[in-house]
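Researcher: Here's a chain I'd like modeled. Treat it as a single chain, no partners, no ligands.
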Amino acid sequence: MRILTWLAALACVGMYLSILLAVCDTGPHIMGGERVTRTEWLHIAAPLVAVMGILMAFIAYGFATRKHWSRHVVIAIFVLIVLYASVLGALNLIHRAIMWRALINGVLFGGASIWYFYLKPNVVAYFRALSDR
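Model: Modeled as a single isolated chain. Structure tokens:
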């Protein structure tokens, strides 16, 4: 859990750094593996990245302080990605390739997270012990 705490904290910092770099127009702007304009990235990806940065901070805090709710926040990130991509795709605000990549990644990594946090016996026991205290 210590490694996951650090990874979540670093991801939080990285997300806000990516927004700062986009505002400063530094580097390529990529969504779903495809280059997009700076304006497109700031209007479409930046709001999702900002919310995910907040959720990553909650995850890092929850893991560091051993809160039982922290695993639910991990799943919330992947649900958010799938919902965001679905809505933007349905409204034709993003390319279909970007939408499908986000959906596939969200489902695959979300599924792996569900397995790890809700089905892996030792992790389930850890969080059950946290909720019992």
